[in-house]
């Protein structure tokens, strides 16, 4: 039995779609008794909404960069830290377009997206103090501005991780990453590490593709290229390769 973990945006979901051959290969993969898992920076509800138009049923969804599995939150941001983070983000509003807050309420994961005008009017610094905040995602006006914010402010908040994802910064607990959650899952499923395969296109995928047999694409960051075993053009192509591995 094998287990394949795929990033979503830019990896499984390319050019605003999942191609038909990849969908077919995923179906063959699962029908052969293997696990197919999506690991994404998105939260569970937004991922489910995105894939509902496709005939695809991942066995598990690792969301929020590893902070959640399906509707289960593995960690949260400390409430006091959350308020400090939002205050810092608001004080740099010229850098950002909007903020999205993923949180747990009554054992379900929800998300709320707000512009910075709404943030000020509704006082979201206080709104979620009674909730379990899982992840903050802030969208900057440019990749450069996002990188500059991380460089300038990340060291002030060692309790969380700032994960750059193009022009978006995902902020999660410092112990959170996709690799850690994959390791917990394969232990639970009793899957040997030699039978774990990963594929991704972003630097937040580096840990998981560096640890296991993996693939990425010719156009990704050189750090990722050096970490992977295969270069492919889509997830379906990678499935074809590993399906014949013995």
UniProtKB/TrEMBL annotation:
Coiled coil regions, renumbered to chain: none
Keyword set, alphabetical order: Hydrolase
Entry-linked NCBIfam families: HAD-SF-IIB (TIGR01484)
Organism field: Tetragenococcus solitarius
Keyword Hydrolase: yes
InterPro entries: HAD-like_sf, HAD-SF_hydro_IIB, HAD_sf
One Pfam family it belongs to: Hydrolase_3
Gene3D superfamilies: 3.30.1240.10, HAD superfamily/HAD-like (3.40.50.1000)
Molecular function as annotated in GO: hydrolase activity
Protein name per the record: Cof-type HAD-IIB family hydrolase
């Amino acid at each position: 039995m094998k287990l394949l973990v795929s990033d979503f945006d830019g990896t499984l979901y390319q050019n605003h779609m999942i191609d038909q051959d990849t969908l077919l290969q995923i179906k063959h993969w699962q029908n052969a008794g293997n696990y197919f898992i999506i690991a994404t920076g998105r939260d569970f509800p937004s991922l489910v909404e995105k894939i509902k138009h496709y005939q695809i049923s991942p066995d598990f969804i690792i969301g929020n960069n590893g902070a959640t599995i399906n509707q289960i939150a593995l960690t949260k941001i400390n409430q006091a830290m959350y308020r400090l983070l939002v205050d810092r983000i608001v004080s740099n509003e010229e850098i950002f377009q909007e903020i999205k807050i993923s949180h747990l309420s009554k054992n379900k994961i929800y998300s709320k997206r707000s512009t910075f005008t709404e943030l000020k009017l509704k006082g979201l610094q206080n709104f979620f103090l009674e909730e379990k905040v899982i992840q903050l995602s802030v969208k900057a006006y440019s990749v450069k501005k996002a990188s500059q914010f991380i460089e300038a402010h990340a060291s002030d908040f060692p309790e969380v991780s700032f994960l750059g994802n193009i022009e978006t910064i995902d902020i999660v607990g410092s112990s959170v990453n996709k690799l850690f959650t994959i390791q917990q899952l394969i232990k639970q499923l009793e899957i040997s590490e030699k039978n774990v395969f990963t594929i991704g296109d972003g630097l937040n995928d580096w840990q998981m593709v560096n640890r296991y047999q993996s693939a990425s694409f010719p156009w990704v960051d050189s750090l990722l290229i050096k970490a992977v075993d295969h270069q492919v053009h889509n997830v379906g192509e990678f499935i074809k390769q590993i399906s014949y591995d013995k």
